[in-house]
Amino acid sequence: MNLRLRLTVLALAGIPTMAAAADLEVNSTTLLRIEEISVRGFDDETIVPATTFLGIDANRLGDGNLSFHLHGWGRLDLGDDSTRGGSADGDLSYAYLAYRFPVADAQVKLGRHFVYAGVANEQLDGVSARTDLAAGFTLSAFGGAPVRLNMTDDNKGDYVAGGRFGWRLPGYLEIGVSALREGGIDTGPASAIKDYRQLVGGDIWVAPFRMVEIRGHSNYNTATDGFAEHSYLLQVTPLRSLALSAEYSDYRLRDYFASTNLRSLFNPDRDENLRSYGGSATWTIAKPVEVSADYKRINYDSPGRGNTNRYGAEARLNFLERKLKTGLSYHRADADNSINSYHEFRGWGLYDASRFRGSLDAIIHRYDDGIYSEKTAYELIGSLGYRILPALMLSGDLSYGENPRLDSELRGVVRLVWNYISAAKGGSK
């Protein structure tokens, strides 16, 4: 049993104690996936992994301000191995204690958890804290060991630390500056990469008027001496029935992917910029009818990569007091390289009542240039669910598709979802 599974088992052993002294919420989802894959030139495969996701939230521990949170998963293959890691696997996404102080909206987390603070988007084994200061200022900090991926330890350091300092005018403005440093990185075969990762950045959210909102951030990679990204979004709602948005992003791949552990996919040695901009509009014509249109332009600095225009529209309808929802959409990707150009057609429907749930989704891609002499790819997905008990639901998905790389692909999933809620002064809900 690996370390992550041991941690999960130890955490589960404490459930009875927590149930007696806290507001306890437990949710579990078990998936049984059935998939047959036929690839030209290879033996057919039957993939049948059984995967369970488990989440636990125990609140009002101790003096009422302490809580415990856990989420993890485990998998067992009942057919051919679904990964190269063997027939069984598991992972602990997070398991941490959180204490919320009664003043200054202060909070401390200890254990494995995620941190989102300006330039930081980290999963770590360690501690993080945040608090409000006087005059609208805020402060957050974190430190610990980066969680290593199961597949490789390359490009993961021995420690990571950082924080964010901000100021806000409630309802109108929030700005912040942040930084992080990850040290002791094992660069593996990529010896040109530095043995540390260091980012600084600034972020902003501003709403000068009730109908206008702007948010964005810029991050600078001090290890490579270059801006990693700029990303900004403008949202305008001139009418309750009309929403407009515009976005702009700029990535310098050498600085953005400098510490990636998948260099074959995210190649930081390709020194070029990727810029994109576009917008969308959504209009609620009447209560059950909504239409939207969007456009996005993607530009590469390298002439050989080419640029792409993606645009399209979607119509969504709601019936039976929103129990039945349907939609139709069309999008076009028009690229300088015709191999990246295609038409996309999609239609879907969803029915969601108190006991029954069903959906049907169809998507078709029509490529300008054939791939292995084929120009069409499609997939059909159907789902049906039944709520056996208020806290227990059984559902299943079945999909079939064909594309230029697969003669056929048939997949099925059986899903069992259980949600349990118990209050300290009452029974289960």
Automatic annotation (TrEMBL):
The keyword Signal applies. Keywords: Signal. Residues 1-21 form the signal peptide. This is Outer membrane channel.
